[in-house]
Amino acid sequence: MRKRRATSNDVQGRHGVRTSRSECDVVIFGFRTKVFVLAVLTLLCPRCGNPAAHPVHRAVTKFTLFFVPLFPIRVKYSTQCTFCGLAGGLSKEQATGMVQQAQGAPQGYGTPQQQYPPRV
Fold first, then answer.
1. E strand or H helix at 38, and its extent?
2. For 79-117, how does the pLDDT look when each residue is reduced to its tens digit (9 = 90+)?
3. What predicted TM-score, i.e. pTM, was given to this entire model?
4. Which of 37, 40, 74 is nearest to 54 (CA)?
5. How far out from the chain centre does Cα 17 lie?
C-alpha cells in the first residue's frame, strides 16, 4: 500500500491518520418577528361578554442574514381580549379601520362599546 503525499490542506487526524480539510463557508440566516401595538380599543368580547381593552397588534416577520433584518416576509394583524385572552386575526382593512376609529374618538365609561370585528 502506497502512502499519500501530504498537501497544504491536510491536517493531522486521530491516531496519526492524515485527513483532508474541507473548506466551508458559514451562512447564518433566519427569521425574526416583531409585534407592534397599533391601538387599544374597548370592545365587547364575544366569549366572555365583558367590555374589555383589545389591543390591535401588527406582527412583522423579516428575513435575517447574519442577524440583520433585511426584508419583510409576512405581516399579520390580530386583536386579543385582555380579560379572557380570546385572540382573533384581522385583515389589513379591518385593522386600519379599527386604528382610525381609535384615533378619531376617545372611549371612556360614557361611550358605548363596539362589537368584536367579524371573522374573515
1. strand 29-44
2. 999 999 999 999 999 999 999 988 885 555 444 455 556
3. 0.67
4. 40
5. 49
DSSP 3: P
Residue 111 CA to residue 105 CA, distance in Å, equals 9
> Which 3 state secondary structure label does DSSP give 95?
helix
Helix (H, G, I), strand (E, B) or coil at 25: coil
The residue extents of the domains of the chain are 30-115
Identify whether the C-beta of residue 94 lies closer than 8 Å to the C-beta of residue 114. no
Those residues with Cβ within 8 angstroms of residue 23's Cβ, 6 or more apart along the chain or in another chain: 9
Amino acid at 27: V
For 60-88, how does the pLDDT look when each residue is reduced to its tens digit (9 = 90+)? 999 999 999 999 999 999 999 999 999 99
